[in-house]
Specification:
The chain has about 325 residues and is an alpha/beta fold. Helix 10 crosses helix 13. It is globular. Strands 1, 2, 3, 4, 5, 6, 7, 8 and 9 form a nine-stranded mixed β-sheet that branches. The longest helix has 29 residues. The protein starts with a helix and ends with a helix. The chain folds into two domains: about 170 residues, Rossmann fold (3-Layer(aba) Sandwich), CATH 3.40.50; about 120 residues, N-(1-d-carboxylethyl)-l-norvaline Dehydrogenase, domain 2 (Orthogonal Bundle), CATH 1.10.1040. The protein is built from 15 helices and nine strands. Strand 1, helix 2 and strand 2 form a beta-alpha-beta unit.
């Protein structure tokens, strides 16, 4: 008993040291973060907790006020946010939004300083990504595309998977930032390679959600308890993160969005567009999955989590 009690102070000291390490991991980093949506707000808070000097901006004034209340510096426009930043992180909804943030009025390029690293962490079309990279480099900056996977839970926990495209030396300069945001960080290749990896990720996720929804619908129609079905499949070759997380959502009918169906549809469309226009490659399973998400959107439920795809089968 005494030995156990004597060990407690050392355990507490170790815990405090770890906490201090996390809080100072990004000390000295001056980061502008643009986009505080479902993913971005958690990512930005993790950077702030790690000791970064953070300036944020977003379109939603309520979210901006929330960050002000937390003591985080805010800016009215992207140009203002990046004025003194060494690193700029963009995490917005789609390709059009990235273009507006970069090249629109009072955009990033209006305030960008020499050698600033711009990182796009959203899911953006590959051809547009290459164009954005050129524009940033022409303005004297450096570019990385670093889309993420792991949903809002991964963003909150700092456990995202991050797929990075861009020059290797630039990647090395910001690797410690990525390690605050995720637990699996991979430099895939040159500019655009991160977005190609994310397209592959979204193909697998979208198709697998459809497969789980379809198999659950078949089993339920046959009178099988789908909660027990999920348990039975766990640990076998059919097991996956999608079965675990999205399957649970389907069972519980909990469709509060982690990743919206509209976003999943957009990502599949981008994968199809890139594959067909640049590679001349048809993706029949991806196309069919996209059409299923379009059915869900047509039902007025595109704002729900992509696991709500099971409702398409219930309608049939």
């Amino acid at each position: 008993m005494c030995r156990v009690l004597r060990g407690i102070p050392s355990l507490l000291t170790t815990a405090r040291q770890r906490e201090t390490t996390v809080m100072t991991a990004l000390a000295g980093e001056n980061i502008a973060f643009i986009g505080l949506g479902l993913m971005g707000r958690h990512m930005a808070l993790n950077l702030e907790k790690a000791g970064a000097k953070l300036t944020v901006t977003t379109r939603n004034p309520e979210t901006l006020n929330m960050f002000e209340d937390l003591g985080v510096e805010t800016a009215p426009t992207p140009a203002d946010a990046v004025a003194n930043a060494d690193i700029v992180i963009i995490c917005v909804a789609d390709t059009e939004a990235v273009e507006n943030v970069l090249m629109g009025e009072d955009g990033v390029l209006d305030g960008l300083e020499e050698d600033t690293i711009v990182i796009d962490m959203g899911t953006t079309a590959v051809d547009a990504t290459r164009r954005f990279a050129d524009a940033v480099e022409d303005a004297g900056g450096e570019w990385l595309d670093a889309p993420v996977s792991g949903g809002t839970l991964g963003a909150q926990n700092g456990s995202l998977s991050i797929m990075v495209g861009g020059e290797g030396d630039i990647f090395q300069r910001v690797d410690r930032i990525f390690k605050v945001l995720g637990n699996r960080v991979t430099h895939v290749g040159q500019a655009g390679a991160g977005q190609i990896a994310k397209a592959a990720n979204q193909m697998i996720v979208g198709i697998t959600i459809a497969a789980v929804a379809e198999s659950f619908s078949m089993a339920e129609e046959a009178g099988v308890d789908i909660a027990k079905l999920r348990d039975a499949l766990t640990g076998g070759f059919a097991d996956s993160t999608v079965l675990q997380q999205h399957g649970k959502r389907m069972i519980e009918r909990n469709f509060e969005p982690g990743g919206k169906a509209t976003t999943q549809r957009k990502d599949l469309y981008q994968a199809l567009e890139f594959s067909e226009s640049e590679l001349g490659l048809e993706l029949p399973m991806t196309r069919l999955s996209m059409e299923l998400y379009e059915e869900l959107i047509d039902m007025g439920e595109g704002h729900l989590d992509h696991s709500a795809l099971i409702r398409v089968y219930e309608e049939d």
